[in-house]
Amino acid sequence: xxxxxxxxxxxxxxxxxxxxxxxxxxxxxxxxxxxxxxxxxxxxxxxxxxxxxxxxxxxxxxxxxxxxxxxxxxxxxxxxxxxxxxxxxxxxxxxxxxxxxxxxxxxxxxxxxxxxxxxxxxxxxxxxxxxxxxxxxxxxxxxxxxxxxxxxxxxxxxxxxxxxxxxxxxxxxxxxxxxxxxxxxxxxxxxxxxxxxxxxxxxxxxxxxxxxxxxxxxxxxxxxxxxxxxxxxxxxxxxxxxxxxxxxxxxxxxxxxxxxxxxxxxxxxxxxxxxxxxxxxxxxxxxxxxxxxxxxxxxxxxxxxxxxxxxxxxxxxxxxxxxxxxxxxxxxxxxxxxxxxxxxxxxxxxxxxxxxxxxxxxxxxxxxxxxxxxxxxxxxxxxxxxxxxxxxxxxxxxxxxxxxxxxxxxxxxxxxxxxxxxxxxxxxxxxxxxxxxxxxxxxxxxxxxxxxxxxxxxxxxxxxxxxxxxxxxxxxxxxxxxxxxxxxxxxxxxxxxxxxxxxxxxxxxxxxxxxxxxxxxxxxxxxxxxxxxxxxxxxxxxxxxxxxxxxxxxxxxxxxxxxxxxxxxxxxxxxxxxxxxxxxxxxxxxxxxxxxxxxxxxxxxxxxxxxxxxxxxxxxxxxxxxxxxxxxxxxxxxxxxxxxxxxxxxxxxxxxxxxxxxxxxxxxxxxxxxxxxxxxxxxxxxxxxxxxxxxxxxxxxxxxxxxxxxxxxxxxxxxxxxxxxxxxxxxxxxxxxxxxxxxxxxxxxxxxxxxxxxxxxxxxxxxxxxxxxxxxxxxxxxxxxxxxxxxxxxxxxxxxxxxxxxxxxxxxxxxxxxxxxxxxxxxxxxxxxxxxxxxxxxxxxxxxxxxxxxxxxxxxxxxxxxxxxxxxxxxxxxxxxxxxx
Length: 885
Fold this sequence. Notes:
By secondary structure, this protein is α+β, with helices and mostly antiparallel strands. Helices cover 53% and strands 17% of the residues. It has 23 helices and 23 strands. The chain is elongated, with a radius of gyration of 53 Å.
């Protein structure tokens, strides 16, 4: 089993996932379509995998299960992509892959990728509450798949995987519950199953925890008692050591080598390889015998300084002749030893000249000889500073886990109780009984004795109990589901027939009949419904024809129409009226006419009064956004019924046409009268007087220039009329850009000699020729130059610029000035016919307001874009992007 994952939690989550996958299979299978069958098969495979996972509790994770889940999820994704649960009435749903608690990197990555594929398929088909819940749960499972490769090494990762799987399963069940709202049978079955599922999950979780806790307490008591017994065994070992130490003076006389050497030692004491014998004199130590290897010098010195040894050496009483103790050994092989100390022959001062120390090392050899997995229990001793395992019959990894478990438990951070402590099993950690090993003074703790029990026995018992619980819960759920479906169908079938009949009636089939003849409320409702549809069929045919004609008339009217009842409440309105009033139909119907129709005369007086009639009265409609619409108003009573009808005719276009006509005539008369006045004056002078040749030339020049201005105005009007009439024929040819610009610059230097020094050009090198009609492009550039000359004072530069467009596909020819610039809000009005930015009668610059609109229409007809960029106070640039030859 993965570390740190309780069986009860894992079992409850697996039950939840089995229910979710089975619910998905049922929801998809009910669609009875090929994509739905694909989704259902994939979901059934997932349900089978989850059942297998539930029955494998405690076994290592399986890459095969992860790969099978991934394949099933890809199948679900394919089914959803083609509409496995439908795209219209029933929202789509999907259950994402749930990988085992542990899997290697490859299967885990494949599982996560498969989950992403299925999620994308789900969101591509539907975006609603069901899809949101299921996709959210699906994301949780994808994260769980990513953590699966770490679940066997980290308790936190394993618990996170379980938590993510459970949260994802809950999200899927919420989505399936929302999906069930579209079917009465699904509602009935889901309502019955919801409580049963909750009870099943709770039973697995609660009963599982009870089983686990009970067995865990029993195991802790067992290992605690075993640890106490082993401490008692060490005490008995100390008594044996005292007896062997007292035997040493007789079998190992002073000056004799009879106890030295392995064979002699074993022959005399019958000892084990873990035992040793040391003779300690009052002035030092002498090694006498050792069954395995000689004791190190530091170990002998440590033994000579033992409290028990010094106590016997200083004793003058025969009562202190033998002492047992547990001591720490230092040197290359640190650890614990149980020693017995016995006095040798006493001298004249009644003190022994030497003492004998017989000891048994508590090391791996001792553990292997005495307790090699007796009854499933394992023996270990922890000692030293820092704490380490100095004796054990555990493997290397098991020792590391034991030491880590003891350190993480916190028992080392507080005084050790005299009766020890027991640590419960968690994941792969064993159950541990800890007992302090104390020295002879019964106060000093020299080490910890640990009895451990492999968690496999506990895991096996817990797994078997939970497996039985899970199987029982799943069988009960299956039985309840079948009963719920059978009972639900009998209850819901008549309601479904009634619902289907109602849908057909709503679709216009008034000949449908329900035909349910039961004696309950549904049967009564069915008979009433059939009688109602018969009556509706007759009345509907009459209304349908009338409503069709009336709706067509109202919708096609360009004038706005509102009709009211006798109380002045609006009962009908057509689209034209809604557009004039600036309101929606919901804001008008059911409201009083005098409230929704704010129509006033020029003096501000309201024109809508239910007690007065109007015929073609001019007025203004005041809309909620503050704008006004000029209208002609007619308010008349309805003949043959109570109420009135309000008719509104929009006169905005009429007013605009009138305004444009007036402004056009004013501009034309001004533009023609201005040059005509000097022409007439100078001509009369030339006719009536004899003048010097110089003055004649000057007058004639003025007459010529002014006539050219008049001719340009007339030409512009003719060109605009030609464009509007569609009589412009563009004949493009390849033209060098420099020649095109030089021709325009030379013409304007002649036309406006005062501004000749202000006119400049800048042409990029190596520009390709352009494919245009030079006549019409020249007219467009003339209008742009004329606009720049008008709006910039003398001395301000005006530059003809040519270069490649930003994308490099065209040649951009622009007129750039350093004039006053144009604000952003005024730029939209630049290209409107007969309109200037300054349209007042006192404007400083004349013109018809046609130049820029002429350029815009010409650019659109010729197929090259016109752009304008301007900043107030920093000048403007008008650019034409001409096609390359």
